[in-house]
What does this fold into?
Amino acid sequence: MKKVRELFTALADIVLPPICLICGTYLAKEEKDLWLCARCAACFSINHGLYCPECKRRLPGTETPCHKNARFLLAAPFDFEDPKVRSLILLLKYRGIRKAAIPLAFFLAQYIDRLFTTNDLPAALTVLPVPLHRSKERKRGFNQSALLVKFLGKRIGWTTEYALIKRVKKTASQTKQESPALREKNVKDAFAVIDASKIKGRNIVVVDDVYTSGATMHEVARVLKAAGARIIIALAVAKT
Ligand SMILES: [Zn+2]
Ligand SMILES: [Zn+2]
It folds into this structure.
């Protein structure tokens, strides 16, 4: 049934004139690349700067976060409360609309561009998605974070990697875990390194759709650090 729906979506994209993913109006020629009309695209306001992954406080520069035990810096162009952002993420994640990753990656690239020109951040970066468990990826048909990496990589020219780490444990949904301790326990030992040679000594950007408690990202960062990663930046489209 899902395959049929996907086929119809693909056919509709070919046959029907493209419409804005947010408001549904027909797109002009120059708007088609982003799948957003100019009016909706102008309504997205992008955050500045980096955040502490523990308390999500905005960091004045790129110095160590206020919480010294943090293994990484949090980067997020949007807040999840923004209804337009939330709607694109939901289209991508739960409705299987892959092209919703295109405008999101565009905004990620804009945010990154500004972040790296105004801060003293390392230039040589490897970017990778938070991996999904094989069974979950099969069920959804794709990994939404990997799609974001793919479209982002095209725009900013970083090295993209999709198989440096993998999810070895099938975890329950993080949103169903009621306390930070349970969320931490749920993702404990969920990830394993596949290729440490491409992690050791590298500065790494890990992409995810939404950053909530950070338990998943902490676990990814722990594994990457153990494999010798240097600076780690968690790049999420939105933070809660
Ligand atoms: Zn629109
Ligand atoms: Zn903090």
